[in-house]
Amino acid sequence: MKDNKKPHFLNFSPLLAENYMITNGQKKFRTKQLLDWVYKKRINSFDDCSDLSAEFREKLKNDFTLYTFEIKDKKVSALDGSIRYYFSTAHGDEVITVFMPNPERNTICLSSQVGCPVKCTFCASGSVDFKRNLTRGEILEQLLQVERDTKLSTDSVLFMGMGEPLMNYENVVNAVHSLTSPEQFAYGRRKIVISTAGLVPQIEKLSQENISVKLALSLHGADDETRRKIVPSIIPYKVEDILQAGLNYGRQTKSSVTIEYVLIEGINDDLQQAEKLADLIQEYLYRTDRLKINIIPHNPTGVDRFKRPSDEKIQSFKDCFMRRDLTAIIRESKGTDIGAACGQLTI
Predict the structure, then answer these.
(1) pLDDT tens string 201-244
(2) Assigned CATH topology for domain 70-338
(3) Taking the domain 9-63, which CATH number applies?
(4) 8 A C-beta contact, residue 292 and residue 256
(5) Domain ranges across the chain
(6) Can 49 be counted among the known catalytic residues?
(7) Is it the case that residue 64 has pLDDT exceeding 70?
(8) Distances (CA, A) of 155 to 43, 106, 158
(9) Model-level pTM?
């Protein structure tokens, strides 16, 4: 177990890091050197900061913990090479992160909470009692730990792991600022996706932040009655209001928006649902909006009674949108054999 008494360096913003450096007699430019070592060169220890004095490196080690996670377990998919990490935090909590390697683009799926308070009925994460929000540093450490372990760089970052990102609003937004900051991770804004079950006030607030990342709306139903069978009332907003908030976010930030729709046999796979959702989208869609529908066939979790629809039903559901000139994609799930796919994350 790592020392959890010392501050976690990854929780420090560049401004706080600069204040620390100046307070401790370091020149201002040393802050950039330190941040480069941590965020760009992905060091293992403050000892690796070779352009800082040995004395100051020792002080950094005494004052901060750089990494707080330990890899408790790791599973690699025999199907596609996806990796599911079980991290143990300094507090003894467990965090799940999924890495999806691909010759064209490596993607990481980050968790934002320990457990999930939403408890969507198809999702195994809901079987885990919600404990707490992850800190900004713990969110960022998932990426650094995975890259240190795989020796691979990450191209895209998805906030689609365990937890509802917008229920941990401040820490997630601060983590995104770090991910997009040229001084830190320097990701392009279009390389990051925040998924939400539909917290309308937070979506509206997010549109005012200077991040402009992509947004994914977990709708899972075309009407409130159907959606309520899947998404509990802790997310009380209407499908129509969630869709409007998402589209407005896309317009204000000039970002693309995705509708996520987990397709469950006998629950929300009726073709009338597809037609109804297409009607609703076209009622509010502007010609300049960038929107697509991700159809995600239900993945087995072992904790629910739901089933995946037939391939024919899935294709027919997609075709309903395509006939209406709406972009729809059947999303291929990764890591289904190791419990790393959509809806399967549990401790």
Answers:
(1) 999 999 999 899 999 999 999 999 999 999 999 999 999 999 99
(2) TIM Barrel (3.20.20)
(3) 1.10.150.530
(4) yes
(5) 9-63, 70-338
(6) no
(7) yes
(8) 19, 5, 10
(9) 0.95
